[in-house]
Amino acid sequence: MKIAGKVFLVTGAGSGMGREMTHQIIAKGGKVAALDIHLPQLLETQQICSGGAANFLALEVDITDRAKLLALPEQVIKHFGQIDGIINNAGIIQPFVKVKDLGFDQVERVMNVNFYGCVNVTKAFLPHLLERPEAHIVNISSMGGFLPVPGQSIYGAAKAAVKLFTEGLYAELKETAIHVSVVFPGAIATNITANSGIEIPKASSGSSGMTALPANEAARIILHGMETNQYRILVGSDSKFMDFLCRLAPEYATNFIAKKMKALLG
Ligand SMILES: NC(=O)c1ccc[n+]([C@@H]2O[C@H](COP(=O)([O-])OP(=O)(O)OC[C@H]3O[C@@H](n4cnc5c(N)ncnc54)[C@H](O)[C@@H]3O)[C@@H](O)[C@H]2O)c1
């Protein structure tokens, strides 16, 4: 779906890819209801966007707060007159530890934000998107949603759930005017580790051997994928390569990434 003249909800718009997508959507003539758990970060995003309140609505909401989310479409439609697309981007990672060392509180937090948050936003906005002549749902999964990364097993499980949820939505909505895209970013240069309240592992520097893509380039690839109605959007050469390797030789791919990540976990 083309961006110009359309209104999008972008979750996690206060940082990283969400901030960059918000900036680029507005630059392309779209409008954004920008949602984040942190208002100051949202206001920083607004600073880099042109057009003021006519194009940008800041929504300080936690995507795990289902009751608040269900009331949100009304607020967005009241402000902009319509809603044409949602980009479920907000997310967090887990501490870099093995499952045996991960507390149930962390398991639930990661599932709540990454999976249920995405489901909550989708269910809140879906009835309104179905009323539009054309609409789009973009859900950000991860390369970790198809490739097991040691030390991020629950994160990966949550992102795999986002993948299947989105693919199911695509199939269910095929006969409607809603396009559905699932996004698999590889390593992207953002502050997700600090924003997730996670300590950066001491051995992390260069240990994965992957070069992170700048967030603005990732945003450009995602929005291009949306504008050309792509079903699957692979972001970065690492994601493209691992997508290929996982299909060709799944066990080899698992061992390959486990070896690369070994220094992080010991
Ligand atoms: N950075 C990467 O390498 C990478 C790779 C693959 C997938 N992803 C995914 O891309 C998405 C964006 O990540 P990013 O790297 O830009 O991260 P980021 O930390 O820069 O941005 C994420 C934003 O989401 C917000 N957020 C977190 N929990 C929230 C909640 N409960 N309610 C509302 N907002 C919340 C944060 O405040 C933050 O502003 C995430 O879903 C992430 O899992 C990132």
From TrEMBL:
Entry keywords, A to Z: Oxidoreductase
Task: List residues traversing the bilayer.
Answer: none
Q: Sorted alphabetically, which InterPro entries does this protein's record hold?
A: NAD(P)-bd_dom_sf, SDR_fam
Q: Name one Pfam family in it.
A: adh_short
Superkingdom of this protein's organism? Bacteria
| Family (UniProt) | Belongs to the short-chain dehydrogenases/reductases (SDR) family.
Protein name (Swiss-Prot/TrEMBL): SDR family NAD(P)-dependent oxidoreductase
What is the organism field in this record?
Answer: Aquirufa echingensis
